[in-house]
């Protein structure tokens, strides 16, 4: 019996060393291997296995008011609208400002958002408005904060119940 137990232990060690698929030991990933895999995935060298997409509309299949039969068409419409109206890389066309200036403006907008305790949607919309405006018009460095203030004012009027007034934005600007 002792010899059988010893043989089982030897077999287990052989299985572990040979890399047998029945190995119950969890594989440890190094930081380098994780970063390499992410880089390959981001660059398109490796493809991520497609996960099963959950149909979130299945629960509403019997609800006539949910109009589930039009869901695919609605998604296609929004995808097309997103492609048509999306913001492109506008920085090469901006001669007076650069990415760092935009980053500083966005950080400042987030600070303003926190100071006035606005909804998260307000700052998201404000940044989107800034990007949309900058993709259409060339803006000088002096006018960049004004574009940010105007965007935050419009976004807060759209999203907030009690939007800050123009004077509030004037007082908080540099």
Describe the structure.
Keywords: Cell cycle, Cell division, Cyclin. It is built from 7 helices and no strands. It has 174 residues and is mainly α. It folds into 3 domains: 42 residues, no CATH class; 33 residues; 82 residues, Cyclin A, domain 1, CATH 1.10.472.10. The N and C termini lie far apart (84 Å).
Short description:
The protein has 174 residues and is mostly helical. It has three domains: 2-43, no CATH class; 54-86; 91-172, Cyclin A, domain 1, CATH 1.10.472. Helix content is 59%, strand content 0%.
* CATH superfamily heading of the largest domain: Cyclin-like
Order of helices and strands: HHHHHHH
What is the architecture of the largest domain at the second tier of CATH? Orthogonal Bundle
Oligomer: single chain
Instruction: Provide the gyration radius in Å.
Output: 28 Å
Overall average pLDDT = 82
What name is given to the CATH topology of the largest domain?
Answer: Cyclin A, domain 1
Number of domains: 3
The geometry reads as extended
Number of helices: 7
Helix content: 55-70%
CATH class descriptor name of the largest domain: Mainly Alpha
Structural class: mainly alpha
Largest pleated sheet = none
Total strand segments: 0
| Percent range for β-strand residues | under 5%
Unreliable sequence segments: none
Report the end-to-end length measured between terminal Cα atoms. 84 Å
